[in-house]
Amino acid sequence: MIRKPHFKFDFWTIVTIVLVIVFALFLAYPLFSLFTSGFKDPETQQFTMANFAKFFTKKYYLRTLGHSFLVTTCTTILAVAIGAPLAYATTVFKIKGKGLVDVLVIISMLSPPFIGAYSWIILGGRSGVITTFFRSVFGVETPSIYGFGGILLVLTLKLYPFIYLYTKGALKKVDVSLSEAAESLGCNGFKKVTTVIIPLIAPTILAGSLLVFMNALADFGTPMLIGEGYTVMPVLIYSEFISEMGGKANFAAALAVILVIITGIMFLVQKYIVNKKSFTMSSLRPIQAKQISGVKNALLHFSVYALVFLSIVPQITVIYTSFKATKGAMFADGFSLNSYKSIFKNLATPIINTYKFGLIALIIIIVMAMFIAYITTRRKTWLTNAIDSMTMFPYIIPGSVLGITLLLAFNDKPMLLSGTATIIIVAFVVRRLPYTLRSSAAILYQISPSMEEAAISLGDSPLKTFFKVTAVMMLPGVMSGAILSWITIINELSASVILYTGKTRTMSVAIYTEVIRASYGTAAALASILTLTTILSLLLFFKLSGSKEVSL
Amino acid sequence: MSDSISIENVVKKYGDLTIIPGLSVEIIDGEFFTLLGPSGCGKTTLLRMIAGFNSIEGGQIKFDDHVINNIPAHKRNIGMVFQNYAIFPHLTVRQNVEYGLKIRKIKKAVIKQKVDEILAAVQIEDYQDRLPEKLSGGQQQRVALARAIVIHPDVLLMDEPLSNLDAKLRIEMRSAIRDVQKKVGITTVYVTHDQEEALAISDRIAVMNAGIIQQIGAPEDIYTRPINVFVSTFIGHSNLFFGIIGKDNQGSYVAFSDGYKSYMTNLSDTCIEGMKVIISIRPEEFSLNEEGLQATVKNCTFLGKYTNYELELPGPMILKNQAAIQYSQDVGQANKIYKIGDILTLKPNIFKINIFSEDGKKSLIKDVSKND
What we know:
The complex is a heterodimer of chains A (about 550) and B (about 375). Chain A has a two-stranded antiparallel sheet with strand order 1-2. In chain A, about 75% of the residues lie in helices and about 0% in strands. Chain A has helices spanning about 10-40, 50-55, 60-90, 100-110, 115-125, 130-135, 150-175, 175-185, 190-220, 220-225, 235-245, 250-275, 295-320, 340-345, 350-380, 380-390, 395, 400-410, 420-445, 450-455, 460-490, 495-500, 505-515, 520-545, and strands spanning about 325, 330-335. Chain A has about 550 residues and is mainly α. In chain A, strand 1 (about 325) and strand 2 form a beta hairpin. Chain A has a single domain (about 15-35, about 50-545), classed as MetI-like fold. Chain B has about 375 residues and is of the alpha+beta class. Chain B has 2 domains: about 5-230, P-loop containing nucleotide triphosphate hydrolases (Rossmann fold, 3-Layer(aba) Sandwich), CATH 3.40.50.300; about 240-355, CATH 2.40.50.140. Helix content of chain B is about 25%, strand content about 35%. In chain B, the strands form 4 sheets. In chain B, strands 6-7-8-3-9-10 form a 6-stranded mixed sheet, with helices on both faces.
């Protein structure tokens, strides 16, 4: 007799239900309240379109949106113009120290974004090293680093690695026989690149550039520090929110809704391109790097090294200045450990908080990621599919928006979480879960279900099998994703800056406030600790994953 | 139209490692020439030297009378079909086939006509506007073939083009390739490790091993009169026996270790009485008889057209390290199917069997040479 498949109530059912509740509570509900509050009048709490009308009729707000689009578009174009040729050059030609180049590029990508802004201020700001040098030696004023140019510089250097890594990944999948086929048909050189290579990697570059676009659009720290009068959307949302704090923050919510809609569209387009437009290629013989010689080779090496140096300048600056002697908030001549002494005396809490909150969030992330990965790949139902789509949301919600969202949702009893460590940890988990989740799901797809079936056929219960067989086999993939989650957690600024209180301040928030207070010495020392932690974690990642590749 | 290819003493080295130590072969205009050998024998390396994807460390390769050693691949006017087809995934079938013609700046109308013709010839007109990923392996193969041929190359080079297809499609495609090649009349160099495929498709075959050509000849010559033990066992199955040359009043013979004598009429003049030799007998070169070699049936496999018996013979008679001693019985002519344990008396066909020198390196049959 054939039994109808019916709903089995087991461990995984419980996991699914718990996850649904967690997502409903910490993601769906807050987002829903954000959307509704965007449509509410601050005074009467009646439904209104006034908040949106205000945005679209006031020149100031529209200009901010214009700023955001301009700086983001320029960043994306520059990132592609730098990242794609760099990837092509390092794939096709032999570069000395290529491994180090890759590692440095990845470090510059994963370092806290606002450290870039801060370092370039130290170098090219009003009393910056370069500025003072040019002023005193040549009597010339260097162009201002603040505003549009500065944001563009910092964001480009921070985001071109995305394009670089994406393009490199795509080129790795191009089988050399495609290139040879073009040659056998009489086509070589520039023409081969334009008719074969570029079309093959174009979808990947396009998908990567949309990612860069979203990242640039959502970035808060960089424009906040270096943008000055040049306001962009996340900064506007932040300042509107802070100034509205007494009221109900409905206008800030409306702004957030607009931003989320834009990034949401970007995300969907990006998904579409990745799924529909990219080619499935598998390469048995990848392109081999060629040795070139003479002037060409020298030029190639010079450009690659110069670019990598430029991207790593912030890290060097930060570490160097952290050892400078200070006089009050200012740098003085000579070196000392004063900055470090000062942070361990006054700023120990943020350091401890970063590691404590980070680790707690990481453990939650790992457990959730493994469970979600399992139910969404092995127990496909409409409910697990719903969870799967929910996990995509963090991609489209800028950090500052998430911060506001959580604060609005958990500001009242019975769910009063604002000001607690919990709310910061929730923000960390929501924002950084996707990295671990993606790598967990990826490895699970590679583990054949017959492994589990074998264990069950030998008499293990399904639950035991999961923990004894599946989970153990998943671990390498999970851990490599977890390290990326960890690195991005400790560098998280845009949500924490909205959620923190004196007691729950993290390192990145402390750096931000120290920079705002112009206390550069302590900021540099904190940033050095953060950078060092990032680099060490990254080295651990390379060791664990056995390759020098990062996919974000 | 197409060119002959002269390969003169070419050498291929990777660092200190010599892959091809100096190889010469003449490929005639318009013929279907196959390089056959086990993997790692240097056949693909040689093909890629002809194509221009591998450098040439010594000797020269000529198309007709032009030395092409230093001409880059894209100027050699070759057509190449790759093992993984290398169809451009971003272009439709038609765009793939047009690609080489567009590079050659041919008029649009001419391109259209040529592409239409070739798509019809390889029977893929119906799929011309699809993207390659929507095609089956066999269809992709046809696209790759059309793309390589449509440019009217001087030579067509094919690198194991059928190895990714399933058995049935392989047989279908090899006749398709053969038909198109004959129709266009283009000099073709084909690389494969599949001996059955080589026999079916080629005008001539060069059997390679360890970077050296063992024998060149028409498929039937190579199969029936192999130059050495390697060729006789690599192409088809051969049972190898120890033997001694002898002579008595009935003529020259080879004697097996158990004393059975096969009187031969085609031994070469280098054979001397008392010479130790290797006797190579294919499974179908035995027949059931009153006299012959005594063998016990160890295993039997019924295969429809014939039955394959695995035999057991006294150890000292046969060379060691052979896969199996086999006898194929033609089912159409058989009176009886034997069972495991039955004892058969098998007579070798003296007009078919081959005799090799003791070291296995040279055939002792009259007029068998390395080159045809």
